[in-house]
Amino acid sequence: MDDDHINQRISEVDAEISSIQTSLQRFEKNEACVELTGLNVSIAQNEAQIPTLEEQLNNEQSEYLDRYFNSINHYFNELGSRNFLLERRADRGGNSPVYHLKVKFHGQDIPETDLDKIFSESDRRALGLSIFLAAFDAMDAAELQQTVVVFDDPVTSFDDHRVSNTHRSMVNLSERCEQIIILSHYREGLSQFLKTYGFGSKYRVKLIEIRKNHTTSSFVDGDASQFTRTAHEENREKILDFIERRVDTVACSLRLFLEAEIGLRFGKQLTEHKIPNYSLKNRINAMVDNNIVTAAVGQELHRWREDLNPEHHIWLDDDIDNKRNTAARFIDFVYLSLVPA
Prior knowledge:
The chain is mainly alpha-helical and 341 residues long. The chain contains 14 helices and seven strands.
């Protein structure tokens, strides 16, 4: 046997095997190689586009932030915070820029440490609400149409002049979104909203109240007309309920009701004659002296003032039937006889 010949032959066979295995791998991995080649081409193309795309992204972000901060400034001024300008500032110290709010007042930069001295409580709440409303301006219109927006006590702590503007901003938003829900403990604010946008307006407004008992809470349909009554109107209903025997006690003071009715009924005349809101006796005398009411009406007012004075016990110590009769005569006087001269 020729060992050299055998070893040479083994080497040739091993080379053939290696060549065949390489060809087999090329066949099996052909698709992966083609894909890899395509990916390498795509990577090269993307790397070439990265500077352009980054510039485009920065421009789009800048345009978005410009619109967003313009919306914030719009709402902030609309909600009653005048002479403020809100600008964006960027911190580019990290991998990505971080944007924050910068405040100017009458064109002067306000340090963050001094914002609590410049912003009132109403300003702070208005700013938060402005940021919230501006976010909806940035939303896609189709997406916003399917969005339900919930406001939680939006006008609490607001100055009076801000409340109506806030209500208008919410109503404007309701025309672009699916629905708005206002949660509030602030009855006066809701009453003002219902009076403006609830009765006979084009908007569909529903009042829902949460009623509690000793075991649970439940939702009930609210009566908007009853909900929006003033305290004076509620006291009038309490007196009428007593007269009509729906209740057995008068849950208000007839004397205070009379004083409030005089202020409402003769507000214009009392202001024109500069009659202050001092004691009821002096106010009645001044009304007679200035010919706001006749002497006869003034005399009747004094009788009611004395009869309803708690110190005289005439009203408090009477029995229930006489009280009902007295209350009925009192209401007749107030709404039939208490008229200008």
